[in-house]
DNA sequence: GCGCTGGCTATAGAATAGCGCAGTCAGAGG
DNA sequence: CCTCTGACTGCGCTATTCTATAGCCAGCGC
């Protein structure tokens, strides 16, 4: 296993093959557009119904339909039947484990927007229901150390 | 200050105004495309020079030029002069504090790609230089509690 | 003063994203 | 049966993204 430090050297090896092995690119295949993030935001805020996604995001129905279809195909949402009393059965879209696993990314982006894109102060704040303290996304290793960007090494697993 | 729980109710209030106060949308104004994330990835991997960005991302020079211009304008990168011995002065692009603050988001997306988009196993792994353990992005409150998606409340700050 | 290298810009084209608007479709209530 | 609501689909349009190819410019070394 190679150790790359400073991580800058990684760029020397990438040339063409990076898209095959970079997990970020695989993530971006599903996520790299504005409306996908907005639909996921609504899902994190508890939205399940088509109508809630369109009203919550301000996107057109056509855009939401496309995103939702993609997200179901990619396994971030599942389609489920539901029926309200006196109504016919309809479908709703529920986050899968994969979708829920994106929550740290959502928090990270939201908090970054709070702090570094502050044309006006943040109006919504995410807090820990248990203690009321605001939440943030942090980078941590499996030994529970907080890790700054300078303390990260990239290792190439040569197969 | 209103407490919203379940957070789903948030969608009821949003109608049109959400883009004004949602920090995620402000973040997406800069970030919502594939090439921006790729350029930032290279910056996190230590790239500073135009050439390193193009070779590392596989994007065309035109795309990189546009992204880099945007990222400088948005304050995530700064342009600095540098001069290698026997070379003329050139410019390089260095992450600002704002740019570095996106690192948790980068890690979160990268790790999510590892785990949930695994057409083939992850080839690059980010580890803590101090102890060698792999890193991940987690959501935590300022009282140092780990917070799951179910334990999060959204509070509206009414101004 | 010529070539080379790094760092761009210009142009043209394909694909995708997103909008507004209009229409469809299923089924419950009247 | 007719209407209403939620959940879509289709069309026409524009803006943005990204690619490919080509060329420009500065200045160091020869």
Terminal residue distance of chain A: 9 Å
Number of strands of chain A: 6
Q: How does the helix and strand content of chain A classify structurally?
A: alpha+beta
Overall geometry of chain A comes to globular
- Report low-confidence residues of chain A grouped into runs of 5 or more: 1-18
Mean pLDDT of chain A: 84
Strand content of chain A: 15-25%
Strands of the widest sheet of chain A, in order across it, are: 1-6
**H/E topology pattern of chain A:** EHHHHHHEEHHEEE
Largest interface, with Cβ-Cβ < 8 Å? A-B, 96 and 96 residues
Please describe what this structure looks like.
- The structure is a homodimer of 159-residue chains.
- Chain A is of the alpha+beta class.
- Chain A has eight helices and six strands.
- Chain A has helices at residues 10-14, 18-21, 23-31, 34-44, 50-57, 61-73, 97-100, 103-116, and strands spanning 2-4, 77-83, 89-95, 124-128, 135-141, 152-156.
- In chain A, a hairpin with a 5-residue loop joins β2 (77-83) and β3 (89-95).
- In chain A, α4 packs across α5 (50-57) and α5 crosses α6.
- Chain A is globular, with a radius of gyration of 19 Å.
- β5 (135-141) of chain A pairs antiparallel with β5 (135-141) of chain B, so a sheet runs across the interface.
- Chain A binds a DNA duplex (30 and 30 nucleotides) through residues 33-35, 49-51, 54, 59-66, 86-91.
Brief write-up:
By secondary structure, chain A is of the alpha+beta class. Chain A contains eight helices and six strands, in the order βααααααββααβββ. In chain A, 43% of the residues lie in helices and 21% in strands.
């Amino acid at each position: 296993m190679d150790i790359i430090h400073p991580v800058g050297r990684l760029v020397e090896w990438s040339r063409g093959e990076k898209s095959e092995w970079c997990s970020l690119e695989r993530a971006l295949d599903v996520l790299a557009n504005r409306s996908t993030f907005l639909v996921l935001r609504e899902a994190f805020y508890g939205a399940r119904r088509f109508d809630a996604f369109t009203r919550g995001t301000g996107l057109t129905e056509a855009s939401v339909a496309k995103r939702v279809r993609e997200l179901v195909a990619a396994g971030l949402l599942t389609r489920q039947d539901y029926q309200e009393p006196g109504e016919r059965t309809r479908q709703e879209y529920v986050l899968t484990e994969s979708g829920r696993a994106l929550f740290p990314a959502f928090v990270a982006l939201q908090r970054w927007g709070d702090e570094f894109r502050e044309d006006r102060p943040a109006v919504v704040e995410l807090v820990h229901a248990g203690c009321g303290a605001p939440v943030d996304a942090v980078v941590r290793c499996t030994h529970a150390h907080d890790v700054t960007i300078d303390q990260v090494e990239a290792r190439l697993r040569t197969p």
